[in-house]
Amino acid sequence: MGDSNLKPKINSTDGKTPVLKQAELDYMKIIEQKNLERVQKLQQITKRNRITGCLIGAGVLGIYLYSINAVKQETFLDDFEEPVKVQQ
C-alpha cells in the first residue's frame, strides 16, 4: 500500500553491524534533540498546570472554610425569644 516510501530493513546475517551514513546519524541526533526539547517543554507545562491546580484548590478551600466560619459566628438567632402569649 504506502510501504513503498519506507526504506528496506537492514538484515545483518553476515554478523557485521550495519553502517549508517553520516547524514543519517546527523538526522538522528537532530530528531533526538528536538524530542528532548519537546519533553522538557511538556514537563514545564505539566509543572505549571499542577501549580495552577493547587492554587485554585487552595482558593476554593479558603472560601469554603471562610463561609463555614462566617456562618458559625452569626448570632442573630441566639437572642431570639418567643413572643409572650396573650392569655384571654
UniProtKB/TrEMBL annotation:
The chain crosses the membrane at residues 51-68. It is found in: Mitochondrion membrane. The lineage of its organism: Eukaryota, Metazoa, Ecdysozoa, Arthropoda, Hexapoda. Keywords: Membrane, Mitochondrion, Mitochondrion inner membrane, Transmembrane, Transmembrane helix. This is Cytochrome c oxidase assembly factor 3. It comes from Papilio machaon (Old World swallowtail butterfly). It is a single-pass membrane protein. GO terms for biological process: mitochondrial respiratory chain complex IV assembly. It comes from the Eukaryota. One of its GO terms (cellular component) is mitochondrial inner membrane. Belongs to the COA3 family. Required for assembly of cytochrome c oxidase (complex IV). Residues 35-83 form the Cytochrome c oxidase assembly factor 3 mitochondrial coiled-coil domain. Component of 250-400 kDa complexes called cytochrome oxidase assembly intermediates or COA complexes.
